[in-house]
Amino acid sequence: LGHGSGGQLSAELLRDVVLPGLGGAGEGVPEDGAVVPVGGVDLVVSTDAFVVSPLFFPGGDIGALAVHGTVNDLAMMGAAPVALAVAYIIEEGFAVADLRRVTASVGTAAAAAGVPVVTGDTKVVGRGAADGLFVTTTGIGRRLPGARVSAAYARPGDVVLLSGPIGAHGTTILSARESLGFEAEIASDTRPLHRLVATMVAGAERDIHVMRDPTRGGVASALNEIAAASRVGIEIDEAALPVPAPVAAACELLGLDPLHVANEGCLLAVVAADRAVAVLAAMRSAPDGRHAVRLGEVVDAHPGRVVMNTLMGGRRVVDMLVGEQLPRIC
Amino acid sequence: MNTIQARVACRIEIHGTVQGVGFRPFVYRLGRGLGVDGSVRNDDGLVVVEAAGPPETIATLAARLRTDAPARARVSELRIRELDGGAPAPGAGFTVEPSVRRGPAGHGPELRRTPPDLATCEACLAELFDPGDRRYRYAFVNCTDCGPRATIIDALPYDRARTTMDAFAMCADCAAEYADPADRRFHAEPIACPVCGPRLAWHIPGQDAARGEEDACGEDALRAAETCIRGGGIVALKGLGGYQLVCDATDEAAVGRLRARKHRPAKPLAVMVGSLAAARHLARVDDAEAAPLTSVARPVVLVEARPGRGLASAVAPGAPRLGLFLPYSPLHHLLLADLDRPLVVTSGNLSAEPIAIDDADARRRLAGLADGFLTHDRPIRSRYDDSVTHVVAGRASVVRRARGYAPEPIDLPVPAPEPLLAVGGQLKHTFTVARGGTAVTGPHTGDLEQQATMEAFTANLAHLCRVVGAEPHVVAHDLHPGYLSTQYAATLPVHRRIGVQHHHAHVASCAAEHGVTGPFIGVAYDGLGLGDDGTLWGGEVFVADLATYRRVARFGRAPLPGGAAAVRRPVRMALGYLFGGEGLDERTRATALRLARPLLRRLPPREVSTVRRMVERGVNCPVASSAGRLFDAAAALLDLRDDATYEGEAAVALEAAAGPGGAAPELPWRLVARDGMLVYDATRTLLALLEGRRDGVDVAVLAARFHATVAAVTIAVCSRVAARHGLRTVCLSGGVMQNRLLAEALLGGLSAAGLEPLINERVPVNDGGISYGQAAVAAARLRRG
Ligand SMILES: [Fe+3]
Ligand SMILES: [Mg+2]
Ligand SMILES: [Zn+2]
Ligand SMILES: [Zn+2]
Questions:
Q1: Residue B353: its chain A contacts at CB < 8 A?
Q2: Which ipTM score applies to this complex?
Q3: Taken in order B26, B29, B35, B36, is the CA torsion positive or negative?
């Protein structure tokens, strides 16, 4: 209950229930995947389960999302994706045509990303035991030479970069699910980011300290995770925050904070200050990073906390989404 | 002659607010006058007297320590014991001895008492304006009866060395006054004069402050600031507890500029006037209001403005009342006397941020707001914004508790068995530390979502804990996991955490300050607070005591379309009630939508359709049983406010529209029983507002009738609950109770119904009182085990 929105409650569920049961696996800093050295090669493994309603939405579907999500998780570990495995859990009565459509989308997305799907599994469960279709994707990748990124590696003075506009994916899904009427103007940003990462990392291997895709819980949660894991403060500028006008308008009407809305096609990078300009230029040269911005910086003040310099001249604490964001106004 | 037998020696410990109030000079004169031998000293947070003399003289001394104590002192207890050894020798005389410091926790079990700042006294004022006096026009004149205290104190015992005046070495004249028992500045710790004390300076932003260059000093600085204000400029003034922004309150353009720069479009601005007579020219000020206005705390007092008296209309647009206050420091007195006009004097900050105190920080944060800085070189140790109060049914009730009031302790009727910290709410933030029967509530800081407020909170907390000797073992916090205070509480290394429901804290704050410990009826009318059922509350009636509560009645629920977005935009709240109010049946909804057609047509179609869909699908629509949100909806349905640029703006507009009151007939309402609770179904009330609009009824009439309705509902609920539970005391609290029209209707109506209503006076009804309420609840729970 309440643990689904990718904020603090998800983090607590992971910390208190899941990780202890696994005997310490993944202890410490929460990352998108794990590095497994095999025969002198650093392999990276990541797995993700996808549940989304609706299955098809402007800009994508669950199939594309499953491919991009895992490709991106590998990329955020500084890895080049090598292969994917896909498993379906299908509710009895799910339309075969839809399954075909999803599968075609998986194939198209994998091909476009240049990452083959090499194995998979399919299970059918009784009515009510699942909601239509769940997809689990596992990926392996090879760590890019020299890349060494972790949410714990942000240092005061570092610069925070963001690869592109935010807020589209979550708003699109919500609007499509509840027929709120924004579907015509907004589409999910779902896309693979590994090529952008390769461009960024080349020549800046040691200077990129953190990479994170701000999916569930949005930019706010990703930055808070970085601040907590690295025990640093982060300051961002509202003026730099790229929120497309239709997204801003929808968020305003829906009462959503774009900082808390999920994304599937952008990344945050924490970069050594002296290379920030070069990395930003590299990002902008890549098709998936054309709209990259310098969002803010890492500071040693207020460790663990993210603060935004607002357009009004104030400094607002940006915290993780707690539950379903009940208003704090009295 | 048997002198041995006729002589006793004893030690008298004086507890209470006895430092910074001229207590040692008083005891010194008393001891001398009575001819006893002995001494007086500040000992940690207490005053200790050792005296020897004839038994009846010592008895007189002890009695007079209470009866003749200085006006600002508050003696809570005298502890007297006989001295076995070390009795003052006969003929030794009476002296003031050096202060004694103790360990971090002091004498325990009570907290040390820090005196609040005191407004300039008459004697000092006379000197300030006496051309023959050596302190003529000196902006830092003070004495044992007046001047800065809490804002300059580093630690207790209260001595100059432990204040920010330590940096100024007394000149020979000041030192003589300080040491002369006959002088009214005997042991006046912040004593100063133009020769040795702090000095004014004038800066213009943009000029190179790094080189420490000043554009003018002393009297010239003051004159420069006055010229700036006369010319329509905005001056950042370093006051007692922080920077203030000052401009001519009669200059429409100046006030408009201040609003634009501060990003504060509508929230009323406080106005300082030179005298009570000047206040009475601008507003109706009755005697009950004159009392706080002229008190040593010198709060801003909310009073009914007289229109057409020359104030710029932008000072308090659309508000029922005007905030007025009188000068409280010599600097303010000089400005008001020289400029001879009302001045806007407002906190030096951006809206919702804490007031700036540090010079460099102020220069940075206020550079874009002020045309000049009138500063000085006495550092401000602690941040104390101006307090705000208003009079409800003849009694002063504080709305914002800061300078002049905080950190004066407030009793806890159920003493805290362990030292505790209550971290408060989220907005209008305060914290409270408590030990034994004493609670110390820190000054108002603001919205914790502002990083500057968080920093002010933690800095104030650390400072005040150290000064008063609090080392909390227990922390009390709100149930809302998203409050930054709750998250802060989770990081503290304490051995127990106590979650206190928001509205229980509200009503407990009222009960506790009135010394109520037994069961009472608690009425919490509020904006929003998290309930124990995971929904938002805010229109609640409890049967409660300090430790527990049971919810016996509530307002009907409505969705908040977009959560906080619906709070910022009250018209969305109106849509929430229209589309999804609790208990709406299809027919009533159809009627409501028909009646609301003019409203629905007036709003952006996209907004109406989206909100409707959000309500139908429950998208980001938390539900709340809130009185505050019902007031918002009513204000929007009456076309008074679509948006709120500050907290409670729509409700303020509704109160203003209703006028000063008088009995208005109720609108239709009903109570329904649901889940063993009484529920106020407001549907009919809101429909009646819409019908009234359709029929062309005056908005003022409808607004007054709406207030009367909420009062009638409440009185009916309380009467039933009282009869059923055999209770009489009703504790009123919550931000909605800041509505004076409603509060007075409730106080009058509940009394008429044979009940005993109480409302907060010493801590705010709004969230500024939450931390004190949390402390009262936590103490009672700890006591219960
Ligand atoms: Fe409240
Ligand atoms: Mg992921
Ligand atoms: Zn004085
Ligand atoms: Zn002097």
A1: 314-315
A2: 0.91
A3: positive
